[in-house]
């Protein structure tokens, strides 16, 4: 029922704005209140590399009767496609996900690119360089040393609320991020950004997203090279801005109609 809260699954094992962001953009696109649900009870999967959770439930004979919607979701590593026929795929994050699942589609985009629209008024820009670390890198001693010597670098804590973290990102002149959604939110606001080494974290999801919006994705910046890179950081318009705009349109157009308010 569209007048009840929409049941959405997002990963919540650790505080992390990129996962909780799913609630914000899904509420925006659906026009409904959104609540967290366990994978088995979810009506929709959206932001994040969470297709493995859908696979665990709908890839076996004990699956629920309902078919959840997949809207811009990706995966961390290759998965067996045995669940695909039991879910409704409206969009995937990128062409790597589609290829590995054998899904014939050219409709890609991460719902996180809708952040600027979902949160409304744009934050006022400043000249700080935002630094966003993947939650697995919190506490890195090199970052503490960098912040002590580079006053222009502004550390943005991914453990904050998505509303606060995203507005901090949107206010920056440039963003350096090892968090995928640090990059995606910066793209949403049109803030130039640089991929920081995710270290032991899987890289496929970064290339998957980038390929879906036509973004060139060179090798990530190493933590030891951040200080030297600061004077060379790009400013101005995103060279792939059209790809971001098109992804935003596709995400709204392909949001499952039966889950929207009033339906």
Protein model, in words:
By secondary structure, the protein is α/β, with parallel strands linked by helices. The chain has two domains: 6-114 and 247-259, no CATH class; 116-239, Rossmann fold (3-Layer(aba) Sandwich). Helix content is 34%, strand content 13%. It is built from ten helices and nine strands. A five-stranded parallel β-sheet has the order 2-1-3-4-5. It has a four-stranded parallel β-sheet with strand order 7-6-8-9, covered by helices on one side. Helix 5 links the parallel strand 6 and strand 7 (153-156). It is globular, with a radius of gyration of 18 Å.
Order of helices and strands: EHEEHEEHHEHEHEHEHHH
Class based on secondary structure composition and strand pairing: alpha/beta
Tally the structural domains.
2
CATH architecture identity of the largest domain: 3-Layer(aba) Sandwich
CATH topology of the largest domain: Rossmann fold
Oligomer: single chain
Q: In what range is the share of β-strand residues?
A: 5-15%
Distance between the termini: 8 Å
The strand count comes to: 9
Supply database-style keywords.
single chain, 263 residues, Rossmann fold, five-stranded parallel beta sheet, four-stranded parallel beta sheet, 10 helices, 34% helix, globular
Short description:
With 263 residues, the protein is α/β, with parallel strands linked by helices. The chain contains ten helices and nine strands.
